Amino acid sequence: MSEDRLAHILRDPLFPCIQCGKCTGSCPISTVSPHFNIRRILYEMLNSEGEDIAQKKEMIWDCSTCTTCVTRCPKQVDPADLVMSVRSVLVEDGQVPPKIRDVLKSISIRGNPWNIGQEKRSEWADGLDIKNIADAEVLYYVGCTPAFDPRLQKIAKALAKAFNNAGVNFGTLGNDEVCCGSEIRRMGDIWSFDALKEMNMDLFNQYPIKQIITSSPHCFNTFKNEYTDLTIEVNHYTQVIADLIKKKKLTFSKELNKTVTYHDPCFLGRQNNIYDEPRDILKSIPSVTFVEMDRVKERSFCCEGGGGRMWIEAHETMKRTATVRVQEALDCGAEILATACPFCLLTLEDAVKSGELEEKLQVLDIIEIVSQVIE
What we know:
The chain has helices spanning 3-14, 22-26, 28-32, 38-46, 51-56, 68-72, 79-92, 98-110, 144-148, 153-166, 182-186, 190-204, 217-225, 237-246, 276-284, 321-331, 342-354, 366-373; strands spanning 131-132, 138-141, 170-172, 211-214, 233-236, 258-262, 288-290, 336-339, 362-365. By secondary structure, the protein is α/β, with parallel strands linked by helices. The chain folds into three domains: 3-95, Fumarate Reductase Iron-sulfur Protein, Chain B, domain 2 (Orthogonal Bundle), CATH 1.10.1060; 100-243, Rossmann fold, CATH 3.40.50; 250-373, Rossmann fold (3-Layer(aba) Sandwich), CATH 3.40.50. The strands form two sheets. A five-stranded parallel sheet has the order 1-3-2-4-5. α13 (217-225) links the parallel β4 and β5 (233-236). It is globular, with a radius of gyration of 21 Å. The N and C termini lie far apart (58 Å). The mean pLDDT is 91.
């Protein structure tokens, strides 16, 4: 790795830093990792040479890019962006963990991070009455994880059911859909992100799309904030479902006698200030007792699913943040831990299973709960 290239990336953005330590003090990863200190890592990499840099580069992959550090910095330094910039140097030099390398390769070749053939992308919709976007005005952008992961295909099916019940004129891209590029950018492959962005923009422009609705906050954030030339309205599904409920276009026919709490996904809440709509949905469901965990909204505790962490094994000495979050849900008396993000669902559900807590706590996406109580 070139010391000059790394210094060029870090020096100017880090100049305003007063070393107050708020970035590390607020970082969810630093609470579970004995060696992750974002401020120290960036400064040490800035002042390192040769082999010293090689010894420190492994730690840069611990960051989930949740941006808690960004919101807490009093000098407007963006440590998460610096992490992505350092990763881009590592990617360019071919110095990436094997699993990250495999994910980047899969997205480049197959258009998704799960190394599954593109021809299987729309299999989740087999047997469902779902239009192609050519025959609709609202694009439901499914996303890679809900399209391919068997557990998360339930989210896509539940959302399609809700849209049909509410009379939404929606369609999908079918097998033509490709990755939005959110995670590939956060893993440092900015060149492939630009290619995916151009590919998606060309695809969207082929149809008279009036609105794009996403399952994932990661896709939503990328389309809304990183596709700077995109002029189509972009919404996360919770915004749309909350509005349909408010307008009484989506109504409930059953009750749910459960105590439910909600985990704010970082890319939906902290990064896009969408806090009320998910809660409005849950509170509107008959016979739901809604409770809050201690850390909510802008203080929500990251589940560790973003920034490539989905494909990185935790260090032996490192506890997953999702395990902490599950305990917080149990502490507030919840029977259901709801979220609105595919990555959050996977990490939180894995934490429940690894702790053998299935009898005490169920992890569901909000739209799965909605699907249970509509006709």
